[in-house]
Design a protein that fits this description.
The protein is about 10% helix and about 45% strand. The chain has about 375 residues and is mainly β. It folds into four domains: about 30 residues; about 110 residues, Sandwich (Immunoglobulin-like); about 90 residues, Immunoglobulins (Immunoglobulin-like), CATH 2.60.40; about 100 residues, Immunoglobulin-like. The strands form six sheets. Strands 13, 16, 17, 19, 20, 22, 25 and 26 form an eight-stranded mixed β-sheet that branches. A hairpin with a 2-residue loop joins strand 23 and strand 24. The longest helix is centred in the first third of the chain and has 30 residues. The protein is rod-shaped.
């Protein structure tokens, strides 16, 4: 079948193809119109997309001060400027602060200033440590696209040494150990170790930088007080003391291996002990531990060299008290002993407690002499 139009004859098949092609072009135009519509709504009335041409350099400020964060925007026109801050949990979730001039948070310290110029400012007064973080000025262009700039605000915080740092530590002799010092602050503090009285550290230096001080082979000389120092120039440096105690079994020596005294006089036997932890010190004679009595008195005191001195006082010596006396010191790491031979003499041997002088020392005499001078009152010729 054929339809005649002017000089042409069209079959139904050819008419169908023509209609299909026209419908295809129509769909193509609709797609084009849709794209054009989206693009049209992605720019302002003059067909220009806003541009953030500059922003505040990343600032570092003191606690309690004020700060202004600014973005310089060209052709903002009717678009909204949004200020936001990264969430505290660092999940990259931005918390909106302002949309245009509308405040979205309940915080009186925050405000915005959007003047007639291209500079748009977020003001924060009375800076707190919690204000640290990333701030963003952004302009939503459409549902899928925004223009933004980020500003990193850092708040200066004085150094703090945490309580979970090593406070005191006890290490067995010749073992390895590590002193730990955990700090915080902004900017990050410099951390360095020193020793009491500026003594040498186990590293061989008077100062060691870093959060940790490692000692590979602990000796008795390493015992003492160490200091962790932290400084970031925000305020005065801070420091924390660390006590290092070195454990070792007792070391015992006697002041005089042989002590003599005559009958009925007093005598003193002394031994000195060094040990950590503090040892138990006893005196033993003939297999029996000596107790305080009318003939014996035991006293203990510390010496200037960190020794524990144990003194056995023997009062009014009797013949049965002569013999060998053992000074024995014991702690959890072991025991050590030393022997003093106590023997009889024909005459008194002056000991630190003989005589009746002050403090148990020998008697002494002080001799004073003066010279008198007469005053000449007058002269007669």
């Amino acid at each position: 079948m054929c339809f005649v139009f002017r000089e042409y004859c069209f079959s139904l098949k050819r008419i169908y193809k023509f209609i299909s092609f026209f419908y295809f072009l129509l769909n193509k135009n609709m797609i084009f119109l849709s794209i054009f519509f989206i693009f049209f709504h992605s720019v302002n009335s003059e067909g220009i997309i806003p541009t953030i041409i500059n922003r505040t350099p990343d600032p570092m400020v003191n606690i309690g001060s004020n700060i202004e964060l600014s973005c310089i925007i060209q052709d903002l026109q009717n678009y909204s400027l949004i200020w936001s801050k990264i969430s505290k949990d660092h999940s990259r979730e931005w918390i909106p602060l302002f949309s245009g001039s509308q405040k979205l948070i309940q915080e009186h310290r925050f405000s915005v200033h959007n003047g007639a110029s291209q500079t748009h400012t977020l003001r924060i007064t009375g800076i707190k440590d919690s204000d640290s973080g990333f701030y963003k000025c952004s302009i939503p262009v459409n549902s899928d696209h925004q223009i933004s700039k980020e500003i990193h605000l850092q708040v200066k915080v004085p150094p703090i040494i945490y309580e979970n740092s090593t406070a005191s530590i006890t290490v067995p002799l010749y073992n390895a150990t590590k002193l730990e010092c955990y700090v915080s602050g902004q900017p990050p503090p410099d951390v360095f170790w020193t020793r009491e009285n500026n003594e040498l550290l186990p590293t061989g230096n008077r100062e060691h930088r870093g959060n940790f001080l490692r000692i590979i082979n602990v000796t008795k000389e390493h015992a003492g007080t160490y200091y962790c120092n932290a400084n970031n120039n925000v305020s005065s440096s801070v420091r924390k003391s660390f006590k290092l105690e070195v454990e070792y079994s007792p070391e015992v020596y006697v002041v005089k291996p042989r002590v003599g005294q005559a009958l009925s006089f007093n005598a003193v036997l002394e031994c000195r002990v060094s040990a950590v932890p503090t040892p138990v010190i006893v005196w033993v004679k003939d297999g029996s531990q000596i107790q305080n009595s009318q003939h014996y008195r035991i006293s203990h005191h510390a010496t200037e060299n960190d020794y524990n001195a144990s003194v056995l006082h023997i009062t009014s010596v009797e013949r049965s008290q002569y013999g060998n006396y053992t000074c024995k010191a014991t702690n959890k790491l072991g025991d050590k002993r030393a022997v003093v031979e106590f023997y009889e003499t024909d005459h008194e041997e002056c000991s630190p407690t003989c005589g009746s002088g002050l403090g148990g020392y020998p008697d002494f005499k002080l001799i004073f002499s003066t010279t008198s001078v007469a005053i000449l009152l007058f002269v007669r010729w």
